[in-house]
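Figure 2 data, in text form.
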Amino acid sequence: MKRFVVRFWNILTRPSVHFSLGFLTLGGFLAGIAFWGGFNTAVEATNTEQFCIGCHEMQAIPYQQLQNTIHYSNRSGVRAMCSDCHVPHDWTHKMGRKMEASKEVWGWLFGTINTPEKYEAKHLSMAQREWRRLKANDSLECRNCHQFDSMDFTLQAPRAAAAHSTALTTGGTCIDCHKGIAHELPAGMHSRYVE
């Protein structure tokens, strides 16, 4: 084994006989661009609604629930996709979320939630995990569209204006009050203020 490693290292460190340093540098640069372009294209493909609802579990339950909310159909015609709420927009947080999502793919491969009964059995734990994630990142995905400092509290209903101004001064975040805003609350939860 040691002989193989030494031989491989010698091959890597020996100057190229057939190609110039400029050619190798340019080739490495172009290969890097191609890799980055392919990687970014693959990441963006996993952020599409078609990808998210590609498995029947997601289309049958969460996507159907989303279609009955203001985030799907509203007076302004602006519609939130799955990735708008579940994937941060900035690159660093997006990559972290993609790493977390790998266990969701694992669950899909093994059929963890592939029936309505299995989905409902895991619904509360999945919702709580997502609520903890949003609480920990100060509802980063929500704030891509909704900013406290852009809100005109005088145009809001009195209850909403009071809640938003209190959250603004106390450091509250969107998910503290808006659990179940895009999907139904898990069975047994009658209030979005209880975890």
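Caption note: The mean pLDDT is 86.
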